[in-house]
Amino acid sequence: MTHLKMYQKALFGISKITTNDTGIFSINSVKTLSLGSGIIVSKNGYILTNEHVSGEKYSKCYITIEGDSKEYSGTVMWSDTDIDLSIIKIDKLGLTPINLGDSDNIRVGNKVYAIGNPIGVDFERTITSGIISAVDRTIKLKENEDYSYMEDLIQTDATINNGNSGGPLINENR
Q1: Is residue 159 a part of any domain in this protein?
Q2: I need a surface site. Which of 65, 69, 166, 169 has the fewest CB within 10 A?
Q3: CA distance to 15, 60, 127, 160, per residue, from 74 (Å)
């Protein structure tokens, strides 16, 4: 099995309905659907994704698996807003996990592939390609009047569409 096919098999679609409702009498309640991707990291149902896709620890999200008509309920077991990562657990055994690579070994100019589920199920398991444009990037985030920083980021020119968040960025070796 090629590396790309292996990663496609280990890729999950993740959706989460978020509600900004402060009570049953709220006039301004807003419901949004968050879509993203995740990657299997253990055969007993653990999935790695972005925290902005899954939500915070103990929140619920829904997982779709290619070739399986069932939708699985997932629970966020761990999340970290500062690094935008989370681990989700679903009740399914016998999954095929991927081997994570070592991002310390990537170099500017390396060819990479972004795999994800842009726009949810409409374009699931899409692959785009590009190169590593820069490493060790830092971005400044502003939320209300607070600032935070995300450091040691990888910059690529591979197309990343809405719904690709949480999916892997791989090279030809991984």
Answers
A1: yes
A2: 69
A3: 10, 6, 25, 24
C-alpha closest to that of 11 among 120, 142, 155, 109: 120
Catalytic residue among 37, 54, 86, 165: 165
Which one of 3, 52, 59, 103 is the catalytic residue?
Answer: 52
* 52 is known as an active-site residue: yes
State whether 123 and 80 are in the same domain. Answer: no
Catalytic pick from 3, 84, 103, 133? 84
Q: Are residues 161 and 108 in the same domain?
A: yes
DSSP state of 9: H
Q: How many domains are there within the chain?
A: 2
Structural domain includes residue 96: no
Domain containing 45 equals 3-22+29-89
Angstrom distance (rounded) from CA 110 to CA 129:
11
CATH number of the domain enclosing 136 = 2.40.10.10
- Could you read off the pLDDT of 100-146 as tens digits, one per residue? 888 888 899 999 888 877 665 555 667 888 999 999 998 887 878 88
3 in active site: no
Distances (CA, A) of 105 to 115, 131, 135: 20, 14, 11
- 30 pLDDT exceeds 80? no
Question: Is 133 among the catalytic positions?
Answer: no
Residue 115 lies in a domain: yes
